[in-house]
Amino acid sequence: MSEEQKKLLEQQLWNIANELRGKMDADEFRDYILGFIFYKYLSEKMMIYANKILKEDGLQYDAIKEDNEEGREYLEAIKEESIDKLGYFLKPSELFSEIAKKGNAESENEDQSNFILEDLTKILKNIEASTMGTASEDDFDDLFSDLDLTSQKPGKTATAKNTLISKVLSHLDVIDFSLDDPKADVLGDAYEYLIGQFASGAGKKAGEFYTPQQVSTVLAKIVTTGKTRLKSVYDPTCGSGSLLLRVKREVQDVNVFYGQELNNTTYNLARMNMILHGVHYQKFDIKQEDTLEHPQHLGQEFEAIVANPPFSAHWSANQLFMGDERFSQYGKLAPKTKADFAFVQHMISQLAENGIMAVVLPHGVLFRGSSEGHIRKYLIEDRNYLDAVIGLPANIFYGTSIPTCILVFKKCREHNEDVLFIDSSQHFEKKKNQNYLRNQDIDKLIHTFQQRIVEDKYSYCASLEEVKENDYNLNIPRYVDTFEEEEPIDLQAVASELVGLDKEIIKTNNNILDFCKQLNISTPF
């Protein structure tokens, strides 16, 4: 698919999404449209897989009769293989195209034969139920819980709601997702585009589920430096899973994706996003819980860790955590009102010896004192895990304009005598009210990181002794001097100019006095 065709698909899906919008907030109609797209994806995957099985018999899956013995035998055999291969099962009558046709059929009587809301609700529940007791159960459990067809958001009456949803399904039904092309990830790209569009209109809520694509790319390129394959990648605050999937693009293969997400709606979105990008259900393990309070992957180590935790979030900072292996060695906990270093400590505890960790944080982590200063010092002086500090432009995240940074950690550092500082805060493009990293900005940043290049006013390798002399304050301007010297001022020229201005003022005042005299009015001075 060409870039032009890809853009057309993205625009088609966005136009369909706006059909649903009405008076709903961006995050509300997001749940509906992404849920319907995912349902269509599952249906088409089911159809493609079943037709491969039936090819030798010269049959098409949607032609199988569900109400006779032969048809039921076929379905039972296909279901067993589908559950194992795809992780779920749909009958021919439950396919997206079938329900879309029914919803848009001309009704010639009053029995509302084109009423599909109950059918649709039942089908979505059946998809989840088909996985019960199987290896994919956790990955499909309550997956469609946010697609609430009993809500009045899509329409105040059942008829209005049915009309709108049927129309949306009809528009989606004619779009070709090209799922039979194993090399194309057309739908995955379009899905990412939609998530980004929703994020741009979601204000502060955007940070709950989406990391801007250009920032995700930087993090992904950092943690895959020198690697073509990864055993595992982990995101403890995975949102929609976009950051994990961005890592997938940078290597040939990732064996398993791990993630945890607090928000239930976003957790569902992450699982959908994984499946829709062709990640087999056995190759991802996404959990829903509070990562700091109730971690779900303790005891495991990961080769790559990426994260964009909520900035300066609150957490309990309960003293019981001093007995937790994630925090006990530091001697102090991150403050209750700023959990930034608590997330860092959590991730460090699960970083493999050969692993790389990159995390986006607010600038305050670089210089704040008290317990945060103590933790920062321990990470640098006692453990020597900090590899790089990268400053990003302000106003690059949705919902906040604050400047941010990326901290890079390694347990086995190749350059263990210094810390690399990069100031990319002035390298961006401004579009409307948002700043963006351009491809050249990303390339320059990554090349500087990977080659540890020192460049005037951009990057600097500070020795551990220098960092110590600065009392472990990592504020980037302490190490990268971006001061632009102003041109020298010619004071004699300025003095001469002022004398000239005084003469002009006297001349102007005399003119005003003369005018006032001629007009026989009082002078203003």
Write up this protein.
With 525 residues, this protein is α/β, with parallel strands linked by helices. It folds into three domains: 3-199, Up-down Bundle (Ferritin); 212-478, Vaccinia Virus protein VP39 (Rossmann fold, 3-Layer(aba) Sandwich), CATH 3.40.50.150; 490-525, no CATH class. Helix content is 43%, strand content 13%. The protein is built from 16 helices and eleven strands. It has helices at residues 3-21, 26-54, 69-85, 96-103, 117-129, 137-140, 158-173, 186-200, 213-223, 242-250, 264-276, 340-349, 370-382, 439-451, 464-469, 491-519, and strands at residues 229-235, 253-261, 284-288, 302-307, 351-362, 386-391, 404-410, 418-423, 429-431, 434-436, 459-463. It has a nine-stranded mixed sheet with strand order 3-2-1-4-5-7-6-8-11. A two-stranded antiparallel sheet has the order 9-10. The longest helix has 29 residues, at 26-54. The mean pLDDT is 90.
Largest sheet: 9 strands, mixed
Low-confidence runs: none
Number of spatially distinct domains: 3
Number of strands: 11
Share of helix, binned: 40-55%
The CATH superfamily of the largest domain is Vaccinia Virus protein VP39
Report the order of strands and helices: HHHHHHHHHEHEHEEHEHEEEEEHEHH
Distance between the termini: 77 Å
- For the biggest β-sheet, the strand order reads 3-2-1-4-5-7-6-8-11
What's the mean pLDDT score? 90
- Here the CATH topology of the largest domain equals Rossmann fold
Radius of gyration: 30 Å
Number of helices: 16
Structural class of the helix and strand makeup? Answer: alpha/beta
